[in-house]
Amino acid sequence: MFCERCGAAGSDNAKFCEKCGAAVGGGQSLPMPRQTQALAPQQYAPPAPQQYASLPQYAPPAPQAAGATPPVVLVQPQSPYQPAGYAANREPLTTGAFMGMFILQAIPLLGFILLLVWAFGSDVNINKRSFARAALILGLILGALSLLGFIVMVLLAGGVAALNN
């Protein structure tokens, strides 16, 4: 079967032409889009020259002599943007800094003193301060649980001793 619109060959059971998309096999074909008439271009009227009379006119740079070096313009490097209240003690700690904190914390009395200094010091990195406070809170919780466990063990041992007598 051939398409009536474009003449392309198609299969006998096809409903639409594979080339142009028109309906084949006795069906209605899709209407072709209408050609629209081109509109006449509108004439552009530049603004009146007196509007721009007060603006300075462009002057191209003066040509330089052959071999002359162009002027050097020094640009001051700008510091990166830092929001208000930004301090150097807000920089993230490195992995090595955390490892050093763990090692120092393992020293019995010195570790506890350092945790207090890091947790409550005024000029301490915010990450170090948060770590020290979390370590102190965890230590208090574990200490309270250990004390509670010790009291329970003493009471149980006292109860067992009373039963044996």
Low-pLDDT segments? none
Number of helices: 3
Helix content: 25-40%
How much of the residues is beta strand, in percent? under 5%
Structural class: mainly alpha
Averaged pLDDT, please?
80
Distance between the termini: 112 Å
Rg to the nearest angstrom?
43 Å
Number of DSSP-assigned strands: 0
Q: Could you give a short account of the major beta sheet? A: none
**Overall outline:** flat
What's the assembly state of these chains? single chain
Secondary-structure element sequence? Answer: HHH
Can you describe this structure?
- With 165 residues, the chain is mainly α.
- The N and C termini lie far apart (112 Å).
- It is 38% helix and 0% strand.
- The chain is built from three helices and no strands.
- The mean pLDDT is 80.
- Among the domains are: 29 residues; 61 residues.
- Helix 2 crosses helix 3.
Write a concise synopsis of the structure shown.
This protein has 165 residues and is mainly alpha-helical. The chain has helices at 95-105, 108-120, 126-164. It starts with 94 loop residues before the first helix and ends with a helix.
List the helices and strands and how they pair.
Elements: H1 95-105, H2 108-120, H3 126-164
Helix pairs in contact: 2-3
Keywords for this entry:
mainly alpha, 165 residues, 0% strand, flat, 3 helices
